[in-house]
Design goal:
mainly alpha; 4 helices; rod-shaped
């Protein structure tokens, strides 16, 4: 600890050298441009998902919604009634879940297939 001595401001060799140079150097007026003080616009990073990621997210969201509501869903007995009910639900879910119309048909079929698998049936 003896090697580290506390130096007073007047004993600091770097400050003494700077003071000596200041007397020799010409005084330069420095003006700071106000534009340099403004923050730079840097924007924000936008995460862009791929088509495969969007489809995966859409399928997952659709499966979550359909599996949660499947126990309380009433099924109409006629083929036309089932198709109409299915289409109404599909259109409503497409809007609610913000799934593109180009993805919805295939996602709907995949979700229906997965939910109908015997291994996934609740007993």
């Amino acid at each position: 600890m003896a090697a580290f001595q506390r130096l007073e401001e007047g004993d600091n060799p770097l400050l003494i050298a700077a003071d000596n140079l200041a007397a020799v150097l010409p005084e330069v007026a420095t003006e700071i441009d106000v534009a340099l003080l403004r923050p730079l616009p840097t924007g924000q990073r936008a995460m862009r998902s791929t088509a495969a990621q969007r489809q995966g997210i859409g399928l997952h969201t659709l499966l979550q919604h359909l599996s949660a509501s499947s126990s309380g869903t009433s099924v109409l007995l006629t083929a036309d009634g089932i198709k109409k009910r299915e289409m109404t639900d599909m259109a409503a879910l497409q809007l609610q879940l913000d799934i593109s119309s180009s993805d919805m048909e295939s996602l709907w079929q995949q979700a229906q297939y997965l939910l109908a698998l015997p291994a996934l049936q609740r007993s």
